[in-house]
Automatic annotation (TrEMBL):
CDD domains: AKR_AKR13B1 (cd19088). It holds the Pfam family Aldo_ket_red. Transmembrane segments: none annotated. InterPro entries: Aldo-Keto_reductase, NAD(P)_OxRdtase_dom_sf, NADP_OxRdtase_dom. Residues 18-287 form the NADP-dependent oxidoreductase domain. The keyword Calcium does not apply. This is Aldo/keto reductase. Keywords: Oxidoreductase. It comes from the Bacteria.
Length: 291
């Protein structure tokens, strides 16, 4: 048995703990509007940092905008070791998810980055993701060129990609260094495996979202049943095993579980100490095909 390394480096110069915090849930229902318990959200974000978390993930479309503002209100001025990642490139016109759309217009992306920096209260954003590779109004390579220019200007420090294909990731790498990629990947869904592999060959960080999910196309009971013996072996929960697996699965992973509960926050962080064996990691990895 072993425990994984406790830190990871983004872009060669930003070192953070292996378990980050996804702040998306600190918004209203369907990620729309303000978080209903404003003071509780402030307290939770401060507890996140007090617990030793040094990486927080957000996006301008969370709220929209309210999530970034809440983070600033809770934590600014930020601790020197805290890295905040945000994203731009989505627009949303209302409560219904059908109003969500991807936009690649250079002026829009530039405005989004500048406004995120203003809302967060920073001169330069540590890690800025293109939130989607689905925008069709502007060629993908032009969108990446816009982010490269923003990096050159100092508006953003490092560039990340969210919800892109392996081909898009490879193309982006020919234009500018990509420091991180985030995708849906967990014990029950392996959709982002191509990006897990791609980042592993370039030195980029892979940040799986919904990292503790065990849903498998309507078969969560099967995944749960396979994880339960491993959980019992370590005296932990199935969800903690699902999170610990990411840390053992590859050394460049940085999962970003989200929660609105201090109890769950502590449980998530405790997963970093679970010494899964090689056989246990292999068993979980083999639960689903990774093509």
């Amino acid at each position: 048995m072993s425990t994984p390394t406790s830190t990871i480096t983004i872009g060669g110069d930003l070192t953070v703990g292996r378990i980050g915090f996804g702040a998306m849930r600190l918004t209203g229902d369907q990620v729309w509007g303000d978080y209903s318990d404003h003071d509780g959200g402030i307290a939770l974000l401060r507890a996140v940092v007090d617990a030793g978390v040094t990486f927080i993930d957000t996006a301008d479309v969370y709220g929209p905008h309210s999530n970034e503002l809440l983070i600033r209100q809770a934590l600014h001025p930020y601790p020197e070791n805290l890295v905040i990642a945000t994203k731009g490139g989505f627009v949303r016109g209302g409560y219904d998810y059908s109003t969500l759309d991807a936009v690649g217009n250079p002026n829009y992306l530039r405005q989004s980055a500048h406004m995120s920096a203003r809302r967060l209260g920073v001169d330069s954003i540590d890690l800025y993701y293109l939130h989607s590779g689905q925008a069709t109004d502007v060629p993908f390579e032009e969108q990446i060129a816009t982010l490269a220019a923003l990096k050159e200007e100092g508006v953003i420090r490092h560039i990340g990609l969210s919800n892109v294909t392996r081909e898009q990731f490879d193309l982006a790498q020919t234009i500018t260094p990509i420091a991180a990629a985030t995708a849906l990947y967990n014990a029950g869904i392996r959709r982002g495996v191509d990006l897990l592999r791609a980042t592993g060959t370039t030195g980029a960080v892979f940040s799986p979202w919904h990292p503790m999910s065990i849903a498998d196309g309507g078969e969560p009971d099967r995944i749960t049943a396979d994880l339960e013996p491993i959980a019992r072996n370590h005296g932990v929960t199935v969800q903690q095993v699902a999170l610990a697996w990411h840390l053992h699965r590859a050394p460049h992973t940085l999962p970003i579980p989200g929660t609105t509960s201090l109890e769950h926050l502590r449980s998530n962080l405790a997963a970093a100490e679970i010494p899964l064996s090689r056989d246990e990691v292999a068993t979980i990895t083999a639960l689903l095909p990774e093509r």
